[in-house]
Specification:
With about 475 residues, the chain is α+β, with helices and mostly antiparallel strands. It folds into two domains: about 110 residues, no CATH class; about 350 residues, no CATH class. It contains ten helices and 13 strands. The strands form five sheets. The chain has a four-stranded antiparallel β-sheet with strand order 3-4-5-6. Strands 7-8-9 form a three-stranded antiparallel β-sheet, covered by helices on one side. The radius of gyration is 38 Å and the shape is rod-shaped. The protein starts with a helix and ends with a helix.
Length: about 475
């Protein structure tokens, strides 16, 4: 009698175990297209054997845990490469906008404006009293100044737009860190007894970490309670247990008005801009503070040198106005932001000093001296060479960003494929498991049915 009841117990345990395995398999199939989902497997173990007159015998099967098929090392690599991909994608997007600013194929770029400016002085040297040549030169000079000023302004606008992207990125970072802190608490509650594993919450947390890594470089590790501690690459903690520390954006009025990154730690705000070196936010900051700021500095240097060199020679010559004016600067302004042709010259083209001081109006020697600046300004690098160097630098940086972004994209694809081979759901494999568990379930049900028939027969005999 007891053996028949034991057989019923074994069959019932097998039935429930296979049913749980079928449920887990069904969950895998349902989540085959869920981003970040790690397939799960039921762990089976034999029940504690029991003594009998014939010796110790087995007492069926039980399920232990639902295991999450996940490789933490691959997860860490994915987060690191995701930060690098975000960094180069952000730089590529910003620098492609700069590339449009310095596009020389449209027919009137910086090089074309400079070439026309020098040609205007050469034309004036051939006919110093010519009113048409003077009017054209003044117009060409203003076009050059407008070109420099417009490009400088567009670069400044790109920096402001990057600030807006940084602000949006910081809001996303705060949302993700809050989510990770919340998931930490949920995982800790479920796993507190040590018998359950919060697989789905762990998948959600890993997905949030990956998204966070794409925005900002982070380092993470699990504490003894299974809760993840997240810190910025520079060391500032973002998430600890169920707590998270908000980031913010503050405009640096004392510098150039650019946005700086700050972290609130409960006592106050700390500037952490220098700690962020990767991720989209880090890429935007580097593009703004290194790349675009460098282009602006180069353009400003070009404008200052141009103003200084042209005005220095122009002041030494004389115009063809009635007073034979000299000492008049051709350009006004101090750099790329405010360069312009002197308003007095735009009102009276005769003030253009084509002649050397004291020479007759037909002299064009000073115009030739200014035209010669295109080949050898102060410092030994021509203005045309400086402009070409700036345009070439932009092109090189864009190509570099595109190349690294493409490489990181390929690396991410490789790692994600590798992760999927370990953690992804294979429908073919799940269907095989489903058939296997179904067969075991049917066999267990048949065993219960046979045990029940045997028990009924025994009871009928005893009656």
């Amino acid at each position: 009698m007891s053996q028949l009841l034991g057989l019923l117990s074994i069959g019932t345990g097998a039935l429930l175990s296979q049913q749980r395995a079928i449920n887990v398999t069904g969950n895998n199939i349902a989540n085959v297209n869920t981003p970040g989902y790690s397939r799960q497997r039921v762990g089976f173990a034999t029940n504690i054997p029991v003594p009998s007159p014939a010796g110790v015998v087995g007492f069926g099967v039980r399920t232990t845990t639902v295991e999450r098929m996940y490789d933490r090392f691959i997860g860490i690599q994915l987060n690191q490469e995701s930060a690098s991909l975000g960094h180069w994608d952000a730089q590529k997007g910003a620098l492609e906008r700069v590339e449009v600013v310095f596009d020389e194929t449209a027919g009137y770029g910086l090089n074309q404006a400079l070439s026309q400016f020098w040609s205007g002085w050469q034309d004036l040297a051939l006919n110093p009293p010519g009113g048409v040549e003077r009017r054209v030169l003044a117009g060409i000079g203003q076009n050059l100044a407008d070109t420099i000023g417009r490009k400088y302004g567009e670069l400044q606008q790109i920096r402001h737009d990057i600030d807006a992207s940084v602000k949006d990125g910081v809001e996303s970072v705060n949302r993700l860190t809050a989510s990770i802190a919340d998931l930490n608490q949920k995982i800790a509650r479920i796993e507190a007894g040590g018998t359950e594993t919060a697989n789905d919450y762990r998948d959600s947390r890993d997905m949030a970490l990956k998204q966070l890594s794409e925005l900002i470089e982070v380092q993470s590790h699990e504490d003894s309670g299974g809760q993840v501690v997240v810190s910025i690459g520079g060391g500032s903690v973002l998430v600890e247990s169920g707590n998270y520390y908000r980031l913010g954006v503050r405009r640096d009025i004392e510098a150039d008005g650019s946005a700086t990154l700050i972290r609130f730690d409960g006592a106050g705000w700390t500037d952490i801009t220098g700690d962020v070196r990767a991720g989209k936010v880090g890429g935007w900051l580097q593009a703004r503070d290194v790349k675009v700021a460098g282009y602006m500095a180069d353009l400003d240097t070009l404008a200052r040198d141009l103003i200084t060199a042209v005005n220095g020679l122009h002041a030494e010559g004389s115009g063809i106005d009635s007073a034979g004016s000299s000492g008049i600067p051709f350009f006004s302004g101090s750099g790329a932001a405010d360069i312009a042709v002197n308003a007095a010259i735009l009102e009276d083209y005769n003030l253009i000093a084509a002649a050397a001081a004291g020479s007759p109006p037909g002299d064009g020697s000073n115009a030739l001296r200014i035209a010669a600046l295109q080949d050898a300004p102060g410092g030994g690098v021509s203005f045309n060479e400086a402009a070409n160097a700036l345009v070439s630098k932009v092109g090189h940086d864009v190509r570099e960003a595109k190349a690294f972004a493409s490489y990181q994209s390929g690396m991410m694809a490789y790692l994600e494929n590798y992760r999927d081979s370990l953690s992804g759901v294979s429908l073919d494999e799940e269907m095989v498991n489903l058939i296997k568990y179904q067969a075991a379930y049917n066999a267990a049900a048949k065993m219960i049915s046979i045990a029940q028939d045997m028990l009924d027969n025994l009871m009928s005999i005893t009656r």
